[in-house]
Amino acid sequence: QVKLVESGGGLVQAGGSLRLSCAASGSIFSLHVMGWYRQAPGEQRELVADITVLGTTKYADSVKGRFTISRDNAKNTVYLQMNSLKAEDTAVYYCNAYAAAVTGYDYWGQGTQVTVSS
Hints:
- The protein is mainly beta and about 120 residues long.
- It is about 0% helix and about 55% strand.
- It is built from no helices and eleven strands.
- A hairpin with a 6-residue loop joins strand 4 (about 35-40) and strand 5.
């Protein structure tokens, strides 16, 4: 089992910044992909960004140029720096750890609320 604990959500005005953190613990597979997803009310959960252990990143088009994902492999932690926040970024943000090579290795954090006021 892997436990993911998120922190850093909150309320911010449009144009502001927040930094989310997610720490993984437990039976960690070191090559797992870590990512951030979000889910707004009435919407499906969507990928925001993810990052491989080698640092290869992927972003949703809606956040490119504004959000930056990074990870500290020694600390088993992934970060999401969110700048120039918009009201449409308001959602619950979830951390994910996934490894295709390991059956069932697909873990989620409890989620952290990000609210952007316009």
